[in-house]
Amino acid sequence: MSEALDAAAVRARDRADDRRLMVLSISGMGFVFALAASTQSVLVLGISTPWVGGGEAEQAAALVLRAVVNVVTVVFAIVVATALRIQERGSAGRAALVLVVAVSTALARVGMQLGLGFFPASNTAAVLTEVSTGLVVAVLVLAAGLALVDNRRRLRETERARARQALRATEALESLQREELRVRREVAEGIHGSVQNLFVVMAAELADIASRVPEPEARRLGEVARRLDTLREEELRTLSSVLYPVDIERGAIPAIRALVSRLPASIGVELDIADDVRAAESSASGPLPVERRVLLVRVLEEGISNALRHGGATRLRLQLRAAGDPGDGGIRVALDDDGVGLGEGDGAASGLARLREQLDLYGGSLELGPSPLGGARLAATVPA
User: Fold this and answer.
1) Mean pLDDT score of the chain
2) Same domain membership, residue 263 and residue 227
3) 245 CB-near residues (< 8 Å, 6+ apart)
4) Do 144 and 72 have their domain in common?
């Protein structure tokens, strides 16, 4: 029901847009013809109005009078064309209605000219000339207006087709990312659960075996057990968080805090989160969809990795600001570092290419440039 109402509203808006363009085109071209015809008749051809006179003042009055008649004729054509809605008809209907409007307009113009005494009704040549002139001009103006409306419709349909194509591409990307996230989450939960539990059991068995063998072998088994425990605590947890960021279900801010918390203590981190981002994250409709939160965290992971590995940074500053309308959940991030900056053919830029493509499909952006801290700045926008 809602989709039907939306489609009806779009059609009504399109009809109003076409009607407005038709009126504007007839008005613009019609008034130009009206003033040009009046000027040509009085000043160029010297056609006079018998009851006005032939002096300069009378000539100016005749020019104004003819211009008024022509302008009223244009208004008449606009009213009739709008009432008949010729821009909404098919080809055959248009042709018939254009002829009806053109004939009506030409006859109305000649009728006003006869009523004002521009020439006597007995002057058949003048009547036929004015009727044919008005008819031709009206047909040309109406045809041009319809051509503009048709061109506008084609452009509108082209834009909508592009928008539908972009929407389908975005939906396909989101579907793929949701499936990827589902697999990532299952794998991460498997690592966090069964694989880590297996490591715990193995360490316990090694400890039990170590208690039953001589000291040199026991010491070696104990060392292996400690290595397994370290592998479980550090490597497996890190791998799990890489597959599916920690706290991502709670929102972008908790996930980013969890990411920053894994950095070594020797790296100074300044986290600046704007109040509008906090408000959007805490609202019911504000947080980004989970696949976009993951994309945001992936961008920051790549940026932090580049800053530490390629830039040799010791200080990071991460700023989060709202993107788009306040409260809609979009986030703009800027990651600055104090490293060596960007060099020629820096591999950091190429590593961000896939992330940039994904952001582009969402209507977001990603830029890499110099930082006020002296190193590189990675700025990204993830719209809601």
Assistant:
1) 80
2) no
3) 255, 258, 259, 293, 294, 297
4) yes
Domain boundary among 223, 243, 263: 243
Provide the residue count of the chain. Answer: 384
Tell me the per-residue pLDDT of 323-376, one tens digit each, with 9 for 90 and over.
876 556 688 999 999 988 776 545 555 668 888 888 887 888 999 889 999 889
Domain containing residue 138: 2-168
Q: Is 172 exposed, middle or buried (0-12, 13-18, 19+ CB in 10 A)?
A: exposed
Q: Are residues 236 and 293 in the same domain?
A: no
Instruction: Examine the fold and report which residue of 190, 220, 243 is the final residue of a domain before the chain moves on.
Output: 243
**What's the DSSP call for residue 49?**
-
| Same structural domain, 6 and 151 | yes
String of b and e for 33-52 (b: at least 16 CB within 10 Å)? bbbebbeebbeeeeeebeeb
DSSP, collapsed to helix, strand or coil, labels residue 105 as helix
C-alpha to C-alpha distance for 219 and 189, rounded to whole angstroms: 33
| Same domain, residue pair 236 and 265 | no
Residues 327 and 211 in one domain: no
Q: Are 307 and 355 in contact (CB under 8 A)?
A: no
Distance (Å, rounded) from C-alpha 201 to C-alpha 122?
Answer: 116
The pLDDT of residue 293 is: 85
Calculate the alpha carbon distances from 111 to 1, 142, 160, 361 in Å. Answer: 52, 21, 46, 62
What dihedral angle (degrees, nearest 10) is formed by the CA atoms of 246, 198, 235, 211? 130
Domain count, the chain: 3
pLDDT single digits (tens) 213-241: 787 777 788 788 777 777 776 666 666 66
> What confidence tier does 44 reach under pLDDT thresholds 50, 70, 90?
very low
Say if CB 271 and CB 259 are below 8 A apart: no
pTM: 0.54
Using the 8-state DSSP alphabet, how is residue 288 labeled? P
Quote the tokens at residue 49.
């109005």
